[in-house]
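Annotated sample (chain length 292).
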Amino acid sequence: MPIVKILMSDIIKFFLATIILLLGFLWKGEKVGEIQEILFFQDYLSQESIEEQIEEQKIHPSAPDIQDTCSSQDQLCKKIKTLETQEMIPYKNQVHIATYFINDNQIIEKKIVNTIKEIEIKNNEEGKRGSATRDTIELNVGLTNGLKEFQNLSTHELGHIFDLGVIQGKQSTKSKVFTEGKRVVFATDDPSFFFYKLSRTSESIRKKDVSKKDFCSGYGMTDPFEDFSECFNLYINNQNFFKFIAKKNKILAKKYNFIATLLQGQYKEKNTEAILLLKGNTARRPRDTTKL
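Output written by the structure step:
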């Protein structure tokens, strides 16, 4: 009889241990569920290094000619508000080019052109160079140094719309860790959180073990939204620079692959010359990617 009791006791213990183990797996599955949302992101960084051994220069789709963009039938052009002067046409066209490049290459079904409500292009010598919400942008030509800087700036601001207005979760529950200026608006399964969490524990707190070298720029350290937009611009307009620093840094490699997958591996410009700014120090970062 004692032997039977011992056997029964062992069986019960085994049964309980099995249940606990299964519950542990289920709990882990829920925790990992957030991360599994981004497992489809490809390792473009490794793929590119392999491809380049075979073919030194990859040919990427170029933007349309700057004089051949807007038309009266274009839904995006109707949303771009600016002075109708000859001087402003190149800037208006640049926004048009950048937006459609993102729109045509993005992997997410919700299109950025449909998300945008208004883009206002000013020409003042005061105020901000640029600002954005989840569906509007203000750009100031008067405070930018030429079309190249404006191109970087407009792409950076479009990055905010892509991050806040295009990339969205589906859960009804909202995150209190990552908020929009303390407004609880982001779904708990928002895919952007994967990017944010690479460097931050919350909207206002950076991880203790991260440093400037883990960001695309000094300005990107400000908050998770600037972090995203700085890397977004760096990938689209300065891809070779981003690739160069990402190969030397595990966190930046993940940020690179995140952005690259969102755009299906497509970028506008390599800007290899920007690598010279590092002066041989791969830990150096630009203060602001829009100034590259």
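Annotation: The chain is about 45% helix and 5% strand.
Annotation: The first strand starts at residue 80 and ends at 82.
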